[in-house]
């Protein structure tokens, strides 16, 4: 379970996050939505131990990420800036992650096959298309067979077949008891796969709860999103 409570972050005089509080639960896909600059990436970076909050906590099963004994076996992540070096092959990139995390080498071929890159293991990442790079990022996230996944824009660059595939992958992970925290700008896909929603705007949570509850009274998730984030923006400008 991911539990984020009272999370705040400031850079000098600029406030990035204010009292961000929500949970992402086992057996459910939680969609994390917000406009550009709303604080999604900052929240995920703090959750994954890549940054420190000014105040508040971001916990994985009751512990900060930095205190997890086997982080790669506990949380698989795919966030901006965590891609492979362009000069490495896909297989080498995954092999050093496996070695660093104490993960059996056999998992490299298994995840390459799982994400549809079995024939591209010896290809240098610099030659990958955007969609292939996304698949490699997912392979890295799945390498340790983690119980929880944190994915930032995982369908970006994927073709329709790839989007359908990842939808099934994430739904299957949650149905097997895993936790999925998914950040995306694609409203249709979020509405298709998520159980719960968290919407952030201006560094503050403006809505959280089951999908049907958050969009109640609106024609679609998109309409609910713009209504909620627009109202938050208007409040901030007062």
Task: Tell me about this structure.
The protein has a single domain, classed as P-loop containing nucleotide triphosphate hydrolases (Rossmann fold, 3-Layer(aba) Sandwich), CATH 3.40.50.300. It is globular, with a radius of gyration of 18 Å. The longest helix has 17 residues, at 221-237. By secondary structure, it is α/β, with parallel strands linked by helices. Helices cover 38% and strands 25% of the residues.
Mean pLDDT: 91
Computed over alpha carbons, the radius of gyration is: 18 Å
Q: How many H/I helices?
A: 9
Q: What structural class should be given to the helix and strand makeup?
A: alpha/beta
Total number of distinct structural domains:
1
User: Helical proportion?
Assistant: 25-40%
Query: Can you tell me the CATH class?
Result: Alpha Beta
Short description:
The chain is built from nine helices and nine strands.
